[in-house]
Batch of 2 targets.
Target 1
Amino acid sequence: MLFVPNKLLLEKAMAEGYAVGAFNTNNLETTRAIVRAARELDSPLILATSEGAINYAGINNLKTMAEIAAQESGLPISLHLDHGTSLEIVMRCIRHGWSSVMYDGSKLPFEENVANARQVVELAHLVGVSVEGELGRLVGVEDNISVTEREAAMTDPDQAQEFVKRTGVDALAVAIGNAHGFYKGEPQLDFIRLEQIRARVEVPLVLHGASGIPDEGIRRAVKIGVDKINIDTEVRAAFQKAVASFLAENPQVIDPRKILGPAIKAMSEVVKSKIELFGSVGKA
Ligand code: 13P
């Protein structure tokens, strides 16, 4: 297998006390920016592709871009499906050579999430592909809900233990107050809950929605034992800002390469700063 399964990357991270960054990509510029950053810092890397990204770029395009970037870099890189919600998309990625898949049944009732995740694990493990499951719901930043509702959506530590045991997932994504997109104000992460989950679950833990979490919060999460951290929004924001400012200063330029060049550099800088924060420099 060209790509490295998450299990291998994350078990090393767990043993050595750092986290591997999973950065979302959906095009050539982002893929190259992410891999360039990892290469400069000699870091392991997870290239994350959502179902939306696969629909946008085409599964073969995404795979080939990742493959070439991985080959040229010589780094241990995983190609990972982010938030797969059906067996179809999971199987499609496995057939096309992805080394890791996330099955996200977090919106389903517990028993259904367990049964589906278990099925994905049985199939994926036959061909050496790692599986990430999710328990607890990530509440959107825009969701106007009460504190009690927010807590009810978080991962229950005892249930997490049962979920991992019954499904056999290789990693578990947790909900501890984290959310996708930028946070309105300071994110309120429940680190006590994270510690309780860590104490009950033996597999690597995953923190989604890490854009906008202050560096101190990330360091604390890694110290407690988060082993994979997902970043998307901050890379997108760097892309947007670089393109907007380039075009504001150079409205006459029509060459996409000139317009997108600064964006690649800006995205790469964000990825580099995250890799440094996660502690995976030199761990390739
Ligand atoms: P952000 O967009 O908040 O960085 O979250 C990324 C993520 O968790 C992808 O699964």
Target 2
Amino acid sequence: MTDPVLGELAPEQVRVRFAPSPTGSMHVGGIRTALFNWAFARHYGGTLVLRLEDTDTARSTEEAYHYAIDSLRWLGLDWDEGPEVGGPFGPYRQSERLDLYADIAARLLESGAAYHCFCSQEELDERREAARAAGRTPGYDGHCRALTDEQVATFRAEDREPVMRLRIPDRTITFDDLVRGEISFQPEHVPDFVLVRANGHPLYTLVNPVDDALMEITHVLRGEDLLSSTPRQIALYEALRSIGIGNGAPRFGHLPFVMGEGNRKLSKRDPGSGLDEYVERGFLPEGLLNYLALLGWSIADDRDVFTMDEMVEAFDIRRVNPNSARFDPKKCEAINASHLRQLPVDELTERLIPVLQRAGLLGETVTAEQRALLADAAPLVHERITSLGEAVPMLGFLFVPEDAFSIDPDDAAKVLSSDGLTVVKASHDALGAVTDWSTPAIEQALREALVEGMGLKPRHAFGPVRVAISGRRVSPPLFESLELLGRERSLARLQHAQDAQTR
Ligand code: GLU
């Protein structure tokens, strides 16, 4: 029996591609597309091609190119062929393949699969309006399909520059989508479309299928927004095959729309839609990817959290749900937090280093002492953060140089009133007498002095101490924090709080 996804292919013959148009920030829909292609390739032991569709020279900058590469690297989605790694079908940046497209366009023209169209924009608009008024489908009407030599000569004499269009066969185009099942398009909905502009510039409509054919892509997994271009592309793959390029259309799977607030398609303007935000907030790539996998796919009904290895093992494109998926930033955070909790402490420490460096709390070189302090402090925040960035305000007090330490003015106003300062002074005295600087000894000294000695409730006793030593009302557990801060710095800060507030 032939496999419903592979057909006659051996698993390792699978070739998929991720083909971003690098025009700026990567968004979650695009990352999900990359992820599903990656998981599909890895599941079968096939090949993932990265191809940059950067023929739109106005928008595709060198910066956008590097951004796309760096983003995929950050995510950990590796590719087997493409920019930076090479491969037998390169170059993999379309801007470096323009001669090839010109050559293929000329061959399509010569074979009769494509033709020149001399219609001006005004003429097209006029006829489109007329079709609409007459209740016909308004698409290109095939006006220039069969021009005589005289007609062509007349147009040329008028200095008209033609575009190139594909001659679409006059029949229903049907394909079996891996996600959505059989889909058919009637010919009136698949007009002869433009492949090459009048100025000779090849369009996405040409170069995307041409490269799929040349790069021997077997499966195309991409967003549902591209579904309407699929029948045209299928016609082009057939035309390419007729001139000896490729083997006809690949199999398609269209991934469901991602919806944002108010059940609208998630847009680049929606918060949480761009990759940068997750990088800045210190999400774990595996946490973000795990969440994005859930936009259309699931590993099991009762399970949301999994590793990328588990995803690769279980990934089945036929189990992708064709219904739109809802993007839920809260769930994304929760999944990321689960991945954070699963990290061993030394791994968490390593991952916190670049985050603290970006926040300016650690320098470029991290001393052994700083690393050890971070390793001791990491367990205190481990269960309390949903992203690495949240550790910055919590751990900042340990890494900030003493002369840059400051107390949040709002927190000081709330907690370091005169009563609060009395508590700070008492804690300073009590801790000054502690010689064995350990969490239990610190706790015992503070409880004796403040709770038993002054009869304070724990909240009133420890709140002012917390603000004085950490600068904020929210910090990791107090006694552990004091131990990590060390005797000298703790006492200095308790003194500083009194001096600063009474000044
Ligand atoms: N460059 C196209 C895009 O980013 C790729 C479309 C496709 O995957 O076929 O939308």
